[in-house]
Amino acid sequence: MRVLRLHVNGDCAEVAAPEHWTLLEVLRYKLGLTGSKQGCDKGDCGACTVLIDGVPTLACLSLAATVEGKQITTIEGLVPAHRAAGGEGVDPVQNAFDKTGALQCGFCQPGMILSAKALLAKNPNPSLKEIQESLAGNLCRCTGYTQIYEAVVLAAKGDLA
Amino acid sequence: MLRLPKFEVKNPATVEEAVAMMMEIHGEARFLAGGTDLNPNMKHGLFTPERIVALGGIEEMFGVGFDESGNARIGAMVTLAQVEQHPDLRRAFPALCQAAKLVSSPQLRNMGTLGGNVMLDTRCQWYNQTYFWRNALGYCLKKDGSKCHVIEGGSKCVAAASNDTAPALMTLNAELEFATTSGRVRMPLADLWQADGIWNKKIPHTDLLVALHVPKPAAGSRGAYGKLRDRGSIDFPLFGIAVRLDFAADGSISDAALCAVALQARPWPLKKAAELLIGTHPGQASFNDAVEKVAMLAAKQCRPMPNIPGDHEYRHLMVPVYTRRTLHAAAAGEGPVHHI
To answer: B1: which chain A residues are within 8 Å (Cβ-Cβ)?
Structure first.
């Protein structure tokens, strides 16, 4: 066991966890943050994508004991951050996914949204190719991706009324 | 759900501390860089170390720098995404940056490191499976068993080197800086490999790759990387080939290097094929003729085995195709080459 001090969604969480646990396991089974999904659990599907210091990272392949001191953002952190910045409702990228119907089962959506957030933070007006490349590590078995790309385009335009 | 085996995690601050932590226990210990290869392998029960020495806190292993002569030093912990996007590296070593760009997915390039990609474990479709799967098969030569499922009766493991950046670094004559218990050792990357899929390196896993040194390219040098894969992302190479072309003042090729990967246990330099290009002029018939000869010779020398996913006969048919396309891309200063 190790006592970890993790910075998750703007809060500092002190949590005791076995040293061999992944960040995903700590998020889901110690902190109750089940938005990050446990899919393939070996780096193929992207469903566990979180942002570590703003960079899309797979929580299933990150040891919790190696991410102390870094800023971790999960899907649960988007709405509080959006509202803390003066926004209303949900995060604009989440809103765009809703507006375009960019999900069916929804399992890949947290990872997709976080990959999209990181892209738009770096490049507010991406081309379709850039969107496709940025989401190339997130697999969706339902939608065929088209509406997911449309959601990112819509979020970039900001035309969400 | 795939669980990691129980281990303790050490977080050293210096290279020397890391090497000492590796050696001070009797059981197995492993260095952890980006974790994109070791962690899935541990989840499959392929490694069950008692200790993980995590390298993320060692400052010396980060950063990219050039000396006054233009030789590059790339820290082993520099991520593949950083290599791909580094403007000076892109200018100097296009094949390396193209190879880094084609590794796996964006998330794995954000995590995976250049040092980790060089030190990647070999891969085989009979090996990179869960413990349950391998147990049902009776295991294999590389791990826990004594039978090779690729070559009937084979006594030597043929698991394939699958690291995209290694062939590019081979064409660039890169050198590796290791920290060992007896001090620092520098060796050409070309001398690292041995043709044994179980462990395809001549150094023990307890030696720590600290940095990669890539000599300044010749003026006007060009390069490209070609990668055959099923999908446009995530996949390991089904065949990969790196090319470097140096040019004389008259525009003819003064030196060339080719290196292939995803065939057998080690990256495979194609020295005789590269020699056919010397003296030819890109844009003229001499180069096009030489490219055809090189493509045919590469097809003779590169014999993909049924050791990794993808039909090996199809992979063999793609050897001349990717060799040809990658040579033309390098000559034109373009690339990377991939069909999706």
So the answer is: 38, 41
Q: How far apart are CA B225 and CA B283, in angstroms?
A: 20
Cα gap B250→B220, rounded to integer Å: 12
pLDDT at residue number B121? 98
Question: Could you give the CA distance from residue B214 to residue B169 in angstroms, rounded to a whole number?
Answer: 8
- Residue A18 sits in the same domain as residue A51: yes
Q: In this complex, do B105 and A136 lie within 8 Å of one another by their Cβ atoms?
A: yes
Domains and CATH numbers, chain B: 1-57 (3.30.43.10), 62-123+159-340 (3.30.465.10)
Question: In the predicted model, is pLDDT for residue A151 greater than 70?
Answer: yes
- How confident is the model over A119-131, as pLDDT tens digits? 999 999 999 999 9
Q: Tell me which of A24, A48, A74 is where a domain ends.
A: A74
- A114 pLDDT more than 70: yes
Place of tokens 């899929």: B197
Mark yes or no for CB contact A57/B107 under 8 Å.
yes
Which chain A residue's Cα is nearest to B235? A44
Reported ipTM exceeds the 0.90 cut = yes
| pLDDT of B340 | 72
Interchain CB distance below 8 Å, B7 and A20 = yes
